[in-house]
Specification:
α2 (76-86) packs across α4 (126-141) and α7 packs across α8. This protein has one domain. The mean pLDDT is 90. The chain has eleven helices and four strands; from the N terminus they run αβαβββααααααααα. Strands 1-2-4-3 form a four-stranded mixed β-sheet, sandwiched between helices. By secondary structure, it is of the alpha+beta class. Bound molecules: zinc ion (ZN). Zinc ion binds at residues 135, 139, 179, 182.
């Protein structure tokens, strides 16, 4: 007789029910275990970065010069002005001897630290220094420093390689957004778009950009980078946007109503 299923073995449905229940339980258990492991992993990553940052701070205090009215009378007022404009909370500014042109910030608890490499003072004028300092203070004010440890920890969670590549790309993408935000803070600190732009060019070109021709040549080089696929690729895999994009974003922000209203 078609359609008649009364011949089904008596225990079949019951065992099916049991099987589904077991599968659900296993899924719930593994999900909980993964969640717990992830929370543990992120907490561990945060703890590690907290202690790394603390020991970096200690190392820095021993090797770099903290800027005070006595140790850096020529830049102390500039630092105070930038702090008033950005209001990042407690921050110590250090100068470390180096031939590189760079600055960075770190610290998960106050006071946070901004480190300026000494070569910056040979290349940048006061307004350009304000942009660079304002950029770093912006990272601090916007919470990028501690978020970086948290999200970096999350992006580092062990997962299948395709998933971890995706996590890393997302993390780098967010990092590039942070750079645009920090550039805006730099502009708010120096208030001169052309100085924000020349500071970015000088960071790349260094001493060569000190003459007018050198500056123009450096700009043309930076501008050309945008048209190459290598430029786009290295941007997608990097934590910083292309300089030319940062310059474009500064110009756009400087022309926006939002920016102009701040100084009305
Ligand atoms: Zn930055």
């Amino acid at each position: 007789m078609a359609g008649d299923t009364t011949y089904r073995y008596p225990g079949e449905h019951f065992v099916l029910f049991l099987t589904i229940t077991v599968v659900m339980l296993v899924i719930a258990l593994t999900a909980t275990a993964t969640l717990c492991a992830s929370v543990l992993f992120v907490t561990l990553a945060l703890l590690i970065s907290f202690y790394t940052s603390r020991s970096a701070h200690r190392h820095l205090v021993e090797n770099a010069q903290r800027v005070t009215p006595n140790s850096g009378p020529e830049i102390y007022p500039l630092i105070q002005t930038c702090k008033q404009r950005i209001r990042p909370g407690e921050v110590d500014v250090f100068v470390t001897p180096s031939r590189q042109l760079n600055a960075y910030t770190f610290g998960l608890s106050e006071p946070k630290a901004v480190v300026l490499y000494s070569s910056l003072f040979n290349v940048m004028d006061q307004d350009e220094l304000s942009f660079i300092l304002g950029h770093e203070l912006g990272h601090i004010q916007l919470g990028h420093t501690w978020l970086n440890s948290l999200i970096g920890g999350m992006a580092g969670i062990p997962s299948p390689s395709s998933a971890s590549a995706l996590l890393m790309l997302a993390f780098l993408w967010w990092n590039r957004m942070c750079e645009y935000s920090a550039d805006r803070a730099g502009l708010l600190a120096c208030r001169k778009p052309e100085k924000a732009i020349s500071a970015l060019i000088k960071l790349v070109a260094g001493q060569r950009s000190l003459t007018r021709e050198g500056m123009e040549l450096a700009y043309r080089k930076i501008d050309a980078e945008d048209d190459t696929w290598m430029g786009s690729l290295s941007e997608a895999l990097g934590s910083h946007p292309m300089i030319i994009r940062r310059i474009q974003h500064i110009r756009e922000y400087a022309a926006s109503n939002q920016y102009r209203q701040l100084f009305r």
